[in-house]
Specification:
By secondary structure, the chain is of the alpha/beta class. It has 2 domains: about 230 residues, Aminopeptidase; about 70 residues, RNA polymerase II/Efflux pump adaptor protein, barrel-sandwich hybrid domain (OB fold (Dihydrolipoamide Acetyltransferase, E2P), Beta Barrel), CATH 2.40.50. Helix content is about 30%, strand content about 30%. It contains 9 helices and 14 strands. The strands form 2 sheets. An 11-stranded mixed beta sheet has the order 1-3-2-4-7-5-6-8-14-13-10, sandwiched between helices. A 3-stranded antiparallel beta sheet has the order 9-11-12, with no helix packed on it. The chain is globular. Bound molecules: zinc ion. The site of zinc ion has 4 residues, from loops.
């Protein structure tokens, strides 16, 4: 599989929308969604002569090598490498000297800078499509830019604020106006379980909702039947939440989450949530649990979030 899943050029001027999939190689749903989306966009003007797209789209695979081997990554997680100094060094390095996943990151960034240059875009939107190992990881991650929160909200999945301060080096950290040279707004979408066919449909819906939110298509264009899946899922969940607590797991410690916790489930202060090295881990406050860790690997046991009413 090539890094470029597709490109699309609208008939009118507009922003550059970069959509990445398989930043983690074991997340094929986003790739399938983008593949289908580019096909839908090719057909749209045929069936709908009034269709207008404003600007350009570039769809990219993040980690091609890992994607081809169906692994999260080969040597390192490329969604934890986007520190400004590291990327700067990467951009000036001799390409043949790059090792491990570094050539993947370099190619992603080279493609995006080249596309900005070529399209002369005056604004950049970045949408990262991800999926998770668990069944119910469906949410959006916004940066602290107001427009990012608004776009994430329009995706129709719960929006998590304040997650970026607990993680370093994600694409959301790097894709800013300072680093990209033009106004830049980034959002990430987690579309559900890695190999669930419905995750593909959720990713398609998320992309179309983003295109509507940033007004590169009119709301009545591009059929969006899959949006119903997101709307139904999110109906009983908070629209915007903020991270209030994270339980860090250090290396060489044993972690066992109590069974049955689901994302956005209410927990009470003092409730026993897990065992850490055989000792009880109690919830430090009331809140909603997010990303309870049931798999063997991971450095975050769980997050607590609370609903944000005004955002
Ligand atoms: Zn991912």
């Amino acid at each position: 599989m090539n890094r470029i899943i597709g490109k699309y050029k609208g008939s009118e001027e507009g922003p550059l929308l970069v959509i990445t999939a398989a930043m983690h190689g074991n997340e094929p749903a986003g790739v399938k969604a983008l593949d289908l989306l580019f096909k839908m966009l090719e057909v749209e003007p045929v069936t709908n002569p009034d269709f207008v797209y404003k600007g350009e789209i570039l769809g990219l695979i993040g980690n091609v090598q890992a994607y081809n081997s169906e692994k999260r990554f080969i040597f390192k997680d490329i969604n934890r490498c986007w520190n400004v100094d590291f990327i700067k060094a990467l951009l000036t390095a001799e390409e043949s000297s790059l090792q491990n996943e570094d050539h993947e990151i370099r190619q992603v960034i080279d493609h995006i800078y080249a596309e900005i240059e070529m399209t002369k875009a005056r604004k950049l939107y970045l949408l990262n499509l991800h999926t998770t190992s668990s069944d119910n990881g469906i949410f959006c991650i916004a940066t602290d830019i107001k427009e990012s929160i608004r776009i994430a909200h329009d995706i129709h999945a719960p929006v998590i604020l304040g997650l970026m301060k607990d993680i370093e080096g994600t694409t959301l950290h790097y894709f800013t106006e300072t680093n990209m040279g033009i106004p830049t707004v980034a959002v990430a979408f987690e579309g559900g379980q890695h190999n669930d066919p419905i995750s593909v449909r959720r990713c398609i819906a998320a992309v179309i909702n983003v295109m509507r939110a940033i007004e590169v298509i009119s709301p009545e264009h591009v059929e969006n039947q899959h949006d119903r899946i997101l709307q139904e899922y999110s109906a009983s969940l908070p629209e915007v939440v903020e991270v209030i607590y994270k339980f860090p797991i250090e290396d060489n410690h044993t972690w066992q989450m109590k069974p049955g916790y689901k994302n956005f489930q209410k927990v009470k202060k003092g409730e026993v949530l897990a065992m850490y090295d055989g000792k009880e881990v109690c919830s430090p406050s009331e809140g909603l649990i997010l990303m309870p860790l049931y798999q063997a690997q991971g450095s975050d046991g769980f997050f607590l979030v609370k609903e944000v009413i005004e955002w």
